[in-house]
Amino acid sequence: MISINTVFYRSNEKNIAPVSDSIAQTENSMVWNFIKERNKPIKLNSNIRKDYKTNLILTEARKYMDIGDLDQARVACKKAILADSTNGECYFFSAKINALSNRDIEAISDYTKTVQLNPRHYQAYLNRGILRLKIKKTAAAWYDFFSAIKIKPLKTLSFLLSYAVRSVF
């Protein structure tokens, strides 16, 4: 085994004297411990890997949606849901795509799944309420609006006010 003295002596300029043996042993063990710690493989939590994969797929779906290819965006969302069926954002994004495609019943179903996975997702309540108004389910829409108000009162009321103004004019 090469001692730390030899490593320091060989790696530095030739006119520097090697360090003493006791210091060299201490530094040698510190260096090897550092090397061992640095070379340990990083173990990612399986949830982190799943979230990363899901986010990559959702990014792909967003790109398809941005260029107007809603069918490919829907396929990418289904892949994301298959990758992580406990991620509410997958269902939320799928619902947005279904709403843009005028698939209101599927969008309501996806918003419902979003709310089941994340009961504090006020935007899902708002969007589902608007879709329920569109298909003439007024009582269910009011329930969604009141649920959103309980979560974020000011944002919900300002959204509903702007929605009402847009629909009047």
Walk me through what this model shows.
With 169 residues, the protein is mostly helical. It has 2 domains: 35 residues; 123 residues, Alpha Horseshoe (Serine Threonine Protein Phosphatase 5, Tetratricopeptide repeat), CATH 1.25.40.10. It is 78% helix and 0% strand. The N and C termini lie far apart (83 Å). The N terminus is likely disordered.
Spell out the helices and strands N to C.
HHHHHHHHH
Average pLDDT: 82
CATH architecture of the largest domain: Alpha Horseshoe
CATH topology of the largest domain: Serine Threonine Protein Phosphatase 5, Tetratricopeptide repeat
Q: Tell me the domain tally.
A: 2
Overall radius of gyration: 29 Å
Counted by DSSP, the helix tally is: 9
The share of residues in extended strands comes to: under 5%
Q: Could you give a short account of the major beta sheet?
A: none
CATH superfamily (homologous) name of the largest domain = Tetratricopeptide repeat domain
Total number of β-strand segments? 0
How would you classify the helix and strand content by structural class? mainly alpha
Unreliable parts: 3-13
Q: Identify the CATH class of the largest domain.
A: Mainly Alpha
Helix amount: over 70%
Spatial separation of the terminal alpha carbons: 83 Å
Q: Based on CA inertia axes, which overall geometry fits?
A: elongated
